[in-house]
């Protein structure tokens, strides 16, 4: 006689990180309520890559999906980390900006539409340099416009993480959801090592990298809101929770005096120990779901 | 070239406001002053080098943690003071931009410079959305995170037209390394692909600039040049007041019709498909 | 950078669905498979790896020896192996034949 074997929990877990951008975005929506906009069949590609001998992607590495999440109107905009490192080009940036603008327009007309930004990106696409940088500035502006009317929710799941100018978009978001594997920062370790030397940042020191940029640290120090397991259902639940909470009373980036004082209180005579910031800055909100 | 970073900014801040020192409570790297432009009062902001910064990686004119929060503080103070004023009387905010880059340091990453930068960008954008005309004068370098933090949320952008002006996502050496090209090849690409160019006159083709300005000696503006620049800033303020509070003028400009066709194709298609419910 | 085109006029079976498969990572490719408005099949390849026209021809000759749908195929390629290309094509066919 055989007793049934219960499958371990991790077998049932659906990894979010293993999904590509399209699948990640789709996974957030209520079944049968979503459609992709300006998808690969429209073939609006980068005008700049082919002339540099770089193969373009039909959706320029950005997926826009509109539908309902937990019954509420939402649009998800996801950068594909596997295409050019998720970097922002003219077209991929315009997709995010314009989707935010349309969500704002709808929200102002009474059809509140949250935006979920899936940021798997190293920042500006250097092959498009100034149009990429301009696009990031425009995304920041459009995110700020929407968040007055509906929540802007950033998800950083890994493995690319969210770096460069797009980290400012995470910064202005209403809520930021991260996994342990994810990283969030303005400059990645290699760039710091390059610009300021290996003593400043040894980019081969993985423990150091996650201690500073990792999801657990960012949530722990109060600069991100939720630390969620790499599980598509749990991440969806976290997104639904943020949509239900609605627009925060005051966004983090509006609390200038508080954070300015925290920086002023730092002892800069030596490197700052990340755990100290968790202790001094950490809030009671946020935690593993 | 890099030794000059910050000096042109400082020179123009002094020329336009008469002041060259930081306020008490601010880091020495942030200059903020209210000064007259034409018949009205405006807030001028500039980030300059500070050899004695508490943050070792923010001594050469980078926009670091303290700089970002100081900028945000000044901007929000002006917003608060002008809260009940009509749009036409909200004070202009003039960002004089000559920044090496963002600060590249471990302290900065640990303490969340991404968030500090976001706070400053938010302040600039919120001022613009509230109706303050926000004008950027690129007087030197405007790179990447530094420009996103200080200046790139402006209604209108002005820049000088000489070789000392560089607006870009990454300086040449690093960009060459990351894209695995020689610097010579990178420069050649810039001639063919305007968004990659390090020449501000190519940047001007992208439709993001309001006007290109000229000054013979960047660090020693003449009184004629100062008058010309003031006039241009005043025009930019007036133009901003007539326009929308968002950044749509950037992709609706004549130059953008030529150089940002991808942007326009996306916006047209997305708008059409969004409402096909 | 090369643009390569092929025609397979004998592939005439009407196809009703479309498919998109793949991501243009290094060593990878994406493919769009759509019904062709005319009889026959057309293939349009954009590839960052030059000099393999014959290899692509061999791949598609083989593909269309078994598949007769009147399709338009668009490919963005960043160096996928022939094996990977065929796999992606098969995945796309699976979607449309569902």
Can you identify the CATH class of the largest domain in chain B?
Answer: Alpha Beta
Number of strands of chain B: 7
CATH level-4 homologous superfamily of the largest domain in chain B: 2-enoyl-CoA Hydratase, Chain A, domain 1
Q: What is the quaternary state of this protein?
A: heterotrimer
Q: Could you give the order of strands across the largest sheet of chain A?
A: 1-2-3-4-5-6-7
**Number of extended strands of chain A:** 7
What is the succession of H and E elements of chain B? HEEHEHHEHEEHHHEHHHH
Gyration radius over CA of chain B: 19 Å
**Distance between the first and last residues' Cα of chain B:** 55 Å
Mean pLDDT of chain A: 94
Between the first and last Cα atoms of chain A, what is the distance in angstroms?
A: 38 Å
Break the fold down into its secondary structure elements and pairings:
The complex is a heterotrimer of chains A (289), B (277) and C (98).
Chain A: H1 9-12, H2 21-27, E1 35-37, E2 62-69, E3 72-79, H3 90-108, E4 114-118, H4 129-146, E5 152-156, H5 166-172, E6 175-178, H6 189-196, H7 206-213, H8 215-220, E7 226-227, H9 232-245, H10 256-264, H11 274-281
Parallel strand pairs in A: 3-4, 4-5, 5-6, 6-7
Antiparallel strand pairs in A: 1-2, 2-3
Helix pairs in contact in A: 3-4, 4-5
Chain B: H1 7-17, E1 30-37, E2 40-47, H2 65-81, E3 93-99, H3 106-110, H4 113-129, E4 134-143, H5 144-149, E5 156-160, E6 166-168, H6 172-178, H7 183-192, H8 200-203, E7 211-213, H9 223-242, H10 249-252, H11 254-259, H12 261-274
Parallel strand pairs in B: 2-3, 3-4, 4-5, 4-6, 5-7
Antiparallel strand pairs in B: 1-2
Chain C: E1 2-8, E2 19-22, E3 29-35, E4 41-47, H1 53-66, E5 71-77, H2 82-96
Parallel strand pairs in C: 4-5
Antiparallel strand pairs in C: 1-4, 2-3, 3-5
Would you kindly provide a written description of the structure presented here, covering whatever features stand out?
Chain A is globular and about 55 Å long. Chain A has helices at residues 9-12, 21-27, 90-108, 129-146, 166-172, 189-196, 206-213, 215-220, 232-245, 256-264, 274-281; strands at residues 35-37, 62-69, 72-79, 114-118, 152-156, 175-178, 226-227. In chain A, α3 (90-108) packs parallel to α4 (129-146) and α4 runs parallel beside α5. Residues 284-289 of chain A have low confidence and may be disordered. In chain A, α5 links the parallel β5 and β6. Chain A is an alpha/beta fold and 289 residues long. Chain A has eleven helices and seven strands. Chain A has a single domain (9-281), classed as 2-enoyl-CoA Hydratase, Chain A, domain 1, CATH 3.90.226.10. With 277 residues, chain B is α/β, with parallel strands linked by helices. Helix content of chain B is 44%, strand content 16%. In chain B, strands 1, 2, 3, 4, 5, 6 and 7 form a seven-stranded mixed sheet that branches. The longest helix of chain B is centred in the last third of the chain and has 20 residues, at 223-242. Chain B starts with 6 loop residues before the first helix and ends with a helix. Chain C has 98 residues and is an alpha+beta fold. Chain C has one domain: 2-Layer Sandwich (Ribosomal Protein S5, domain 2), CATH 3.30.230. Chain C contains two helices and five strands. Chain C has helices at residues 53-66, 82-96; strands at residues 2-8, 19-22, 29-35, 41-47, 71-77. Chain C has a five-stranded mixed sheet, with helices on one face. In chain C, α1 packs parallel to α2 (82-96). The longest helix of chain C has 15 residues, at 82-96. The model of chain C has no long low-confidence stretch (mean pLDDT 97). Chains in contact: A-B, A-C. Chains A and B meet through α3, α4, α5, α6 and α10 of A and α2, α3, α4, α5 and α6 of B.
């Amino acid at each position: 006689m055989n007793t049934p074997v219960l499958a371990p929990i991790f077998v049932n877990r659906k990894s979010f990180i293993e999904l590509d951008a399209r699948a990640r975005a789709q996974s957030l929506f209520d079944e049968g309520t979503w459609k992709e906009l300006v998808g690969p069949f429209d073939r609006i590609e980068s005008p700049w890559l082919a002339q540099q001998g770089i193969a373009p992607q039909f959706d320029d590495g950005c997926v826009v999906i509109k539908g309902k999440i937990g019954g509420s109107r939402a649009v998800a905009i996801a950068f594909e980390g596997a295409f050019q490192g998720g970097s922002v080009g003219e077209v991929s940036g315009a997709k995010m900006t314009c989707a935010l603008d349309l969500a704002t327009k709808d929200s102002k007309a009474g059809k509140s539409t949250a935006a979920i930004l899936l940021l798997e990106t190293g920042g500006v696409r250097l092959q498009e340099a100034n149009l990429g940088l301009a696009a990031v500035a425009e995304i920041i502006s459009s995110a700020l416009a929407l968040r007055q009317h509906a929540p802007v929710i950033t998800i950083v799941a890994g493995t690319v993480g969210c770096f460069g100018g797009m980290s400012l978009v995470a910064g202005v978001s209403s809520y930021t959801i991260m996994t342990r594997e994810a990283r969030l920062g303005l400059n990645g370790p290699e760039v710091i090592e390059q610009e300021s030397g290996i003593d400043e940042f040894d980019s081969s020191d993985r423990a150091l990298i996650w201690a500073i940029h990792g999801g657990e640290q960012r949530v722990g120090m109060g600069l991100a809101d939720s630390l969620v397991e790499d599980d598509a259902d749990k991440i969806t639940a976290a997104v639904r929770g943020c949509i239900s909470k609605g627009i925060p009373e005051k966004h983090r980036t509006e609390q200038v005096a508080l954070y300015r004082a925290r920086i002023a209180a730092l002892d800069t005579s030596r490197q700052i120990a990340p755990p100290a910031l968790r202790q001094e800055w950490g809030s009671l909100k946020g935690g593993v779901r | 070239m890099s030794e000059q970073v910050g000096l042109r900014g400082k020179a123009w801040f002094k020329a336009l406001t008469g002041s060259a020192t930081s306020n008490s409570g601010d880091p020495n790297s942030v200059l903020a002053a209210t000064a007259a432009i034409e018949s009205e009062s405006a807030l001028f902001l500039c980030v300059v080098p500070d050899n004695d910064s508490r943050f070792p990686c923010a001594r050469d004119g980078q926009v670091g943690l303290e700089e970002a929060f100081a900028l945000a503080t000044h901007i929000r103070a002006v917003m608060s003071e002008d809260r009940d004023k009509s749009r036409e009387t909200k004070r202009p905010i003039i960002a004089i931009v000559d920044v090496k880059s963002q600060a590249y340091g471990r302290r900065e990453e640990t303490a969340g410079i991404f968030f500090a930068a976001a706070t400053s960008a938010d302040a600039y954008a919120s001022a613009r959305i509230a109706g303050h005309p926000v004008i950027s004068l690129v007087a030197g370098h405007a790179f990447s995170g530094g420009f996103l933090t200080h200046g790139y949320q402006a209604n209108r952008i002005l820049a000088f037209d000489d070789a000392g002006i560089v607006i870009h996502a990454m300086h040449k050496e690093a960009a060459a390394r990351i894209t695995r090209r020689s610097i010579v090849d990178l420069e050649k690409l810039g001639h063919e692909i305007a968004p990659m160019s390090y020449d501000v006159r190519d940047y001007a083709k992208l439709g993001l600039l309001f006007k290109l300005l000229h000054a013979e000696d960047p660090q020693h503006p003449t009184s004629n040049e100062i008058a010309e620049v003031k006039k241009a800033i005043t025009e930019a303020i007036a133009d901003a007041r007539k326009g929308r509070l968002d950044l749509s003028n950037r992709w609706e400009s004549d130059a953008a019709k030529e150089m940002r066709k991808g942007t326009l194709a996306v916006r047209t298609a997305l708008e059409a498909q969004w409402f096909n419910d | 950078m090369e643009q390569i085109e092929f025609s397979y006029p004998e592939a005439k079976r009407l196809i009703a669905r479309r498919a998109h498969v793949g991501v243009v990572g290094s060593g990878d490719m994406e493919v769009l498979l759509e019904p062709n408005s005319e009889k026959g099949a057309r293939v349009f390849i954009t590839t960052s790896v030059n000099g393999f026209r014959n290899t692509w021809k061999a791949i598609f000759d083989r593909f269309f020896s078994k598949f007769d749908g009147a399709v338009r195929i668009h490919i963005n390629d960043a160096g996928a192996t022939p094996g990977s290309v065929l796999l992606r094509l098969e995945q796309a066919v699976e979607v449309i034949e569902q």
